[in-house]
């Protein structure tokens, strides 16, 4: 879920990194946790503008046109982080 300020709120299992939470291999978030584009290395001022998720993966789109993907890639769900 994204808020009006462009922050992603993630929850659930982060195994295998499906939430995109950096530097954490496996956690279970029972309460929403804030994830900002800058947490993933984006330039200051970059916000998330769109998000999608599946059972074991997440996709976030930044205001800079960059796409972040995270999670299980057994079927090619997590393909690229290249700018569109």
Q: How would you explain this protein's 3D organization?
A:
With 84 residues, this protein is mainly beta. The protein has one domain. It has no helices and 5 strands. The strands form 2 sheets. It has a 3-stranded antiparallel beta sheet with strand order 3-4-5, with no helix packed on it.
Q: What would the keywords be for this entry?
A:
84 residues, mainly beta
End-to-end separation: 21 Å
- Strands across the major sheet, in which order? 3-4-5
Radius of gyration: 12 Å
Number of helices: 0
Structural class, by secondary structure, is mainly beta
When the domains are counted, the total is 1
Order of helices and strands: EEEEE
Given as residue ranges, the uncertain stretches (5+ residues, pLDDT < 50) are: none
Average per-residue pLDDT, rounded, comes to: 76
Number of strands: 5
Q: So what's the overall shape?
A: globular
The residue fraction in helices comes out at under 10%
Percent of residues in β-strands: 35-45%
Q: Could you give a short account of the major beta sheet? A: 3 strands, antiparallel
Produce a short descriptive summary.
This protein has 84 residues and is mainly β. The chain contains no helices and 5 strands.
SSE topology sketch:
Blueprint: E1 8-13, E2 28-35, E3 48-53, E4 57-62, E5 67-71
Antiparallel strand pairs: 1-2, 3-4, 4-5
């Amino acid at each position: 879920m994204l808020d009006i300020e462009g922050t992603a709120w993630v929850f659930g299992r982060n195994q295998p990194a499906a939430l995109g939470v950096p530097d954490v291999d496996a956690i279970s978030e029972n309460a929403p946790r804030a994830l900002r584009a800058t947490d993933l290395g984006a330039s200051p001022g970059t916000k998330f503008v769109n998000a999608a998720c599946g059972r074991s993966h997440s996709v976030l789109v930044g205001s800079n046109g960059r796409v972040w993907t995270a999670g299980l890639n057994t079927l090619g769900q997590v393909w690229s982080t290249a700018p569109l």
